[in-house]
Amino acid sequence: MNILELTKLTKKFGDFIAVDQLTLSIAEGEIFGLLGANGAGKSTTINMVSGLIRATSGEIQLMGKSITNNRHFAKMNIGVVPQDIAIYEDLTAYENVKFFAGLYGLRGTKLDEQVKKALEFVGLSDRHKSFPKNFSGGMKRRLNIACAIAHQPKLIIMDEPTVGIDPQSRNYILNSVRKLNEMGCTIIYTSHYMEEVEEVCSQIAIVDHGKVIAEGTKEQLKSIITDTKDVWVEVKNIDGLKLEPIQTINGVLGVEVSDNQIKINSDMGVNNLNAIIQHFITNQIEIHSIQEKEPNLESVFLTLTGRSLRD
Amino acid sequence: MIAERITLKGIILIFIILHTIQVSLQDLPKIILALLIMICINLGIEIVKDRRWKLTLLIVSTVVSFVLSQNVYQWLILFIPIHICEYIFEYIKQKWVQLIILIAPFFFISTRQEQFIFGLILIFSLIIFQMRKQYEEHLLKHETINDQLRHESQVLKKQLILSNQYLKQSEYTIKLEERNRLSQMIHDQVGHAIAGSLIQLKAMKMLKDSDQEKATELLQNAIHILSEGLDTIRATLKNIKPKTEQLGIHQIRLMLDKFSSTFPLQNSFHFQGNIEKISAIHWKIIYENLVECLTNTMKYSKATTVSVKIHVLNKLIKIEMKDNGVGVSKVKKGLGIQGMEERAAKVHGTIIVDGSHGFSVTMLFPL
Amino acid sequence: MNIWSMTLKEILVTIRNKRAFIFMLAFPIILILILGTALSNNFENTSSIGKIHILYYEEQANSYTKPFHDFMAAVKKSDLSFEKTTKDAGKQAIAKAKADGYIELSNKGIDLYVNNTSGISASVIQGLLKGFSDQYNLISEVIKVNPQQAKQLMASSSPTQHIKYITLNPGKKPNSMDYYAVVISTMITLFGALSTVALVHGENIQRTADRLLLAPIHRYEIFIGKMLGSLFVNGICVLLLVGFSKYVLHTNWGNHLWIVILILLSSVLLATSLGLMLSYILQNSASARTIIMIFANTSALLGGSWFAIPTPGWINFLSPLTWENEAVLKVIYANDFTATIPTFTYNLGFSVLCLLIAIFSLRRREGL
């Protein structure tokens, strides 16, 4: 079942079209990565889904219900971790989470319980009485997440949740994204860090100029560019190497030799590295280095949009 | 140099007027009369057209201002530096005369103070006249260059018209040649086959009653010749007919060259990947969309180069057109872009329009 | 319920923002102390008018003679002296400022000559004569209608009965500390608009505005919550200030403290509404602050918060502080509630206007 369905979603600011007939569906239980350069329309899309701005045209359905007619339902079921840290510096961590969770109709012991749970989830239980102004960047980011999940939404939208923090906090956040997903939340994740998206997301859409230009699992996205990978083997001495047997290794498509380097082009879906290495070993040829080059998301993005994500 | 002269003289006039107001002299009426005389003569210089009259009046003005400065009011002498500049820059070419004219006045001026101010104004006027002169020379130089360029462009235009005519002519010739080649080919291969089988058939007709066996053999021969002929025709036609990708690429190249020859627009065209994967319908859409883009570029972008890149990926064709023009900060979706999108939608493709660094249109077609 | 948690949050945020809170409390106290001690001289001196010397001239006997003599007899107190003179001598005396006034009685009417430099004495004479002529006109009107009754009226009349004197109790005049405690309190309510702006724009600065909009609450709940929170905080500040000045500085707040507090709270409402309006109209917090600073400072200047204004002109009444100060001072020193209701009405009226504009601009935009 699709938790979120966007149909021909369009947002115009005057003459400028920020989101252009965008159609996208996100299945329940996914960690859905949204990739796009600044100004590609990610944030506008997210803002429309979360109800911050109205769409010019098109439809957004959350769990089969149109959000324009079911605003309250939609807001109750969506949690947004905004890109900028949005917390009150003059309220303690506990008070912050409690205030925001309270706006979702939680009261009394249930409120207290869920606030504590959210703080524990992001690992701030022991600091719940401290003021955020004394927090590190990573801790603020975590509090930012806690404020968005205390009301236990079904769909969590995380807009660049790891900007400007140390690697430890980043790992912590990535782990909590996975944990939230295991607990049954669907997550929409945007990030500038391609590696993060590649690591954590099960489904990815590339957005450019307000349109989805490619969508699928990371393997599917890579296969848009190419189905092959190159294995570069550098050897000490090329003499005595027979190329024909390499050709017969499962998945190998072609072999080229230049100086002491052998480039073996092979099918990406087949894991034949062992067989290739084995061949060199049986022929008693000393390997200096071996390198496997296959396209990553960065190169997919670059090829499709013509610019790098961090432009 | 009218503007400079009048401005300088005006400044001197204002200086003298302010000076008289401050000092409050007794023979004010006389001074005013003198000033009016000076104004009249100097306006006269600007009004008369003849160069000799101008010179005459200039000399008169110089003499009058000197006489008046001695008799009526000393500062009237300040008109003379400007006159000196006029002599030097417009009438006298010999260096030594210029020098004399520059230095001579100082011997006629009595007081130190007058000499000082006279010298200052002289230097100031000289600088302004010199600047003006340089500026005029500059202008003249540019005008000359401009004329030259205009001339060149005329020549080039003529050449262009001629070569266009030649182009049309040669196009026609090539067509004729091609037709000739085709008819030759048809004549050689089809003609031979049909003629051969015709003879066989005619013979068979004559023999069909008398010698049935021979007739059947002839018929068999005819069939054989005809089927062989058909094969040759097929083979020939296949050779003649260009491949889709060749057709597509050449069409696009031709179109780009045509734009480059009609407008001041350089183009570059690259393709990469397995171009054979592009089907005829893709080529058609690519061609139509590129025409649309180039028309837009011509109309709005002020670009000088445009590049087209076709990149065939594993499951996707990416066609990128980019110009180096002004672009637009906010792309407005007009009919043109909508048309492109509709065409692309036929093959489930996407169009991305970007105006931030020049204008670029990227088409993505899934394979 | 959401409104209540909004309100509670605003109060917490403001009180914990120590700098602003100290400004709200310490600044006015210091002002009262400084101005109260430094400008105390202005309040000790009462200017006395002195003796008023009036010349008069009667053109034979005319219709005014009798009433005027009655009038003179009635107003002749120790400070007023009348002296008969001739026509020219009277005018000369006025021109040379030897007398305070010269009255000329003729059949045509009464002419009064005063010297411009005479100032307040001239005003006193004008006032007296106006009272006289009013009464005389009354009588002559009565004659036209009913001559019989007029005689009766004239016989029994003495002008003093028809002029009402209102005197302030001279023992209950504010000293400088009392005065500044009042005017600084009213002034500080206006500056409360700054903290209101800070509350609204704080959401934008801390990026929490989006989060509020994401929550399933109505924008008006946010609006009302903010307003209540701001009102509460600003109100508490003023109450603390009044309490401090009453119990620590021992200034006089009169016998009707609750009315004074109500007036101050209406001013708090005005400032809060103004702050809300400006922060919703102007996206830019700096410009909203600037406008409030300009408004509050000019109001303070015009309303007598820095220097007492003896006779306020129309321009002074543009400042809400003028009405408020007048109302509060009258309540404290004269038990006079005449200015209370109008001030209350003005403040409430302008507050409602500001709130309506704020709500209107809130409806028109997408954000908070």
Number of strands of chain B: 5
Please state the CA-atom Rg of chain C, rounded to the nearest Å.
29 Å
Share of residues in helices of chain C? 55-70%
Poorly predicted parts of chain C = 157-171
Count of DSSP strands of chain C? 4
**What's the domain count of chain B?**
3
End-to-end separation of chain B in angstroms reads 73 Å
Task: Give me the secondary-structure category of chain B.
Answer: alpha+beta
Q: Order of strands in the sheet with the most strands of chain C?
A: 2-1-3-4
Arithmetic mean of pLDDT of chain B: 83
Class based on secondary structure composition and strand pairing of chain C: alpha/beta
- Biggest sheet of chain B: strands, sense, closure? 5 strands, mixed
Could you tell me the mean pLDDT of chain C?
79
Membrane topology (chain C): Multi-pass membrane protein
Protein name (chain C): ABC-2 type transport system permease protein
GO molecular function (chain C): ABC-type transporter activity
Subcellular location (chain C): Cell membrane
Account of the protein in words:
The complex is a heterotrimer of chains A (311), B (367) and C (368). Chain A has 311 residues and is of the alpha/beta class. In chain A, 34% of the residues lie in helices and 30% in strands. Chain A has two domains: 2-223, Rossmann fold (3-Layer(aba) Sandwich), CATH 3.40.50; 227-294, Alpha-Beta Plaits, CATH 3.30.70. Chain A has helices spanning 42-50, 71-77, 93-102, 108-121, 137-149, 167-182, 194-200, 218-225, 244-247, 273-282, 297-305, and strands at 2-13, 16-27, 31-35, 57-62, 65-66, 78-81, 155-159, 186-190, 203-208, 211-216, 228-235, 252-258, 261-267, 287-293. In chain A, helix 3 (93-102) crosses helix 4, helix 3 (93-102) runs parallel beside helix 5 and helix 4 runs antiparallel to helix 5 (137-149). The two termini of chain A are 36 Å apart. Chain B is 72% helix and 10% strand. Chain B starts with a helix and ends with a strand. Chain B folds into three domains: 2-110; 163-240; 244-366, Heat Shock Protein 90 (2-Layer Sandwich), CATH 3.30.565.10. Chain B has 367 residues and is an alpha+beta fold. Chain C folds into two domains: 2-43 and 173-364, no CATH class; 52-169, D-Maltodextrin-Binding Protein, domain 2, CATH 3.40.190. Chain C is 67% helix and 7% strand. Chain C has helices spanning 2-16, 18-38, 41-44, 65-75, 87-95, 120-145, 147-156, 176-205, 208-214, 219-247, 257-281, 285-302, 320-334, 340-364, and strands spanning 52-58, 80-84, 101-106, 109-114. In chain C, helix 8 packs antiparallel against helix 10, helix 10 (219-247) runs antiparallel to helix 11 and helix 11 packs antiparallel against helix 12 (285-302). Chains in contact: A-B, A-C.
